[in-house]
Design goal:
mainly beta, three-stranded mixed sheet, 1 helix, five-stranded antiparallel sheet, 10 strands, 101 residues
């Protein structure tokens, strides 16, 4: 049973709650991008997440309104903000979706 669960995890069969970040021109994942979540009403940062090598992230937040910014990792190791979203209303406690930046 544990082997089956491990294989399911590795294959990624539970991707329904994951978000992803990809380059809109090349459709390649933005590896290790920083996803920052801000309260829409207050403007303060609530949480930030780092995308995986394949551009996936998991972001658990309380039900409310938010906006996100995405920072792309540059080859020299610095980061550049490349995206700011519109208002995102969260009703199921998870920010997910495919963000093309």
């Amino acid at each position: 049973l544990y082997i089956i669960l491990l294989v399911m995890k590795e294959v990624g069969l539970n991707l329904s709650k994951l978000g992803s970040v990809v380059d809109k021109n090349t459709k390649t994942p933005l590896s290790f991008a920083i996803i920052r979540v801000f309260s829409y009403e207050l403007g303060n940062e609530v949480i930030h997440k780092i995308a995986t090598e394949k551009g996936f992230f998991y972001c658990l937040v309380p039900n409310s309104s938010f906006y996100i910014t995405i920072e792309k990792k540059n080859p020299e190791g610095t980061y550049t903000q490349v995206f700011k979203s519109e208002k995102i209303v969260v009703t199921k406690g998870v920010i997910k979706g495919r963000f093309e930046v």
